[in-house]
Write a structure and sequence with these properties.
With 151 residues, this protein is of the alpha+beta class. 25% of the residues lie in helices and 40% in strands. A 7-stranded antiparallel beta sheet has the order 4-3-2-1-7-6-5.
């Protein structure tokens, strides 16, 4: 049976383990899930947007080959992917596509033998370059992309 000392020890261990977990600035997603994300990312992209309309942690593919992990996000005027630098406390842009240069939106699948397949949202720019993103919120992103690109 638990006595007072055991309950006190369990409580102290629980409280201290919660204090030891890393904050959002020390994780690979950065402050993505905090109110600080929008001001930080809008200052990073400097595209004249006032809001972040979509954001999701995901992977980016080119020619069905995994390129990088990061935060995919859509502003009023563009589509981006960025990585969080835990040392410099800043997002580094890795992909940028102004909404006016979005030529087409399509779907594709990366099939794997030993892992779950990735359903990709493919973005094609006016030069013909295609990049895919494995998004859980693919339909929401597609709707926003059509809205901001005027197509």
């Amino acid at each position: 049976m638990l006595n007072i000392k055991s309950i006190l020890l369990i409580s102290v261990v629980s409280i201290l383990s919660g204090c030891a977990s890393p904050g959002p600035m020390q994780t690979i997603t950065g402050p993505m899930n905090t109110p600080a994300f929008s001001p930080i990312i809008l200052d990073t992209v400097k595209d004249g947007s006032e809001t972040v309309r979509f954001k999701e942690w995901t992977t980016m593919y080119e020619n069905k080959e995994l390129q990088l992990w990061g935060v995919f996000f859509i502003t009023d005027k563009g589509i981006y992917m960025a990585n969080w630098d835990t040392n410099g406390y800043e997002y580094n842009l890795r992909y940028r596509l102004p909404a006016t240069e979005l030529a087409a939106i399509s779907d594709d699948v990366v099939e794997r033998d030993m892992w779950v397949d990735s359903n990709l949202l493919i973005l094609k720019d006016q030069s013909g370059h295609e990049v895919g993103f494995a998004l859980n919120g693919k339909n929401a992103a597609r709707s926003i992309l059509k809205d901001i690109s005027g197509s």
